[in-house]
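Limitations

Structures in this collection are predictions, not experimental determinations, and the ligand pose is part of the prediction. Treat each record accordingly. The example that follows, with phosphoenolpyruvate as the small molecule, is included so readers can see exactly what is and is not provided: the inputs are given verbatim, and the output is the predicted complex.
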Amino acid sequence: MRKPIIAGNWKMNKTISEAEQLIDEIKNQKLNESVEAVLCVPYLSLAKAKEMTKYTNINIGAQNMHWEESGAFTGEVSPTMLNEVQVDYVIIGHSERRQYFNETDETVNKKVLSAIYHGLAPIICVGETLEQREENIHTSLVAEQIKAAFSNVSNEDATKTVVAYEPIWAIGTGKTASSEQAEEMCALIRNTIKALYGKETAESIRIQYGGSVKPGNVSELMSMENIDGALVGGASLKSSDFVKLINY
Ligand code: PEP
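Predicted complex:
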């Protein structure tokens, strides 16, 4: 049985005081304990978020990291820095990072290996653009993204990861992939992992769908066999919506 995981990706939203308020609103509501809740907040709010969720079931994630522990990388944040604030998860290879910050399958793999080495669970993002779907290359592209992200990752370490399938055309656009489209791609991802590591590992890894998930569509998506959770942008910024997603 895979425990469902709903993660909010706040992106570049919320100052520290705003984050404090939002976390306060979320943690003071009744949350379904059989669903894992994760808040991926901006770096500046990580320490506060960790402190505020100490006696709750809410886990905290960063939205990115560098793969090196330290060095001349102006503006970057390292895995050891995330360790010191006891961050649980780190989003790796979000499409916005691939698109605006030139992240490639190669740097995604470096970050995945480094995150695992430092005890941070990576949420590995993959997904295609609308053009790639229209060209009908989305399945091979996503399979390649998975193979690249897991390059040199051992079987045991692979079980520590979460994968997020996020079709770029559905992120922040209000256009959700249909539950069938999302399921088809999540099944493809599980099969690709199965070919790399075998059935047991493939069955243990949680695969999220991301792209305009909201209270109105979450239960249908979550009813799909290969969808174990959601990575949520917009709807994670409003406590009442995020709580509805956790309690889907
Ligand atoms: C995301 O940022 O990963 C995302 C899926 O955003 P949204 O839910 O706003 O589409």
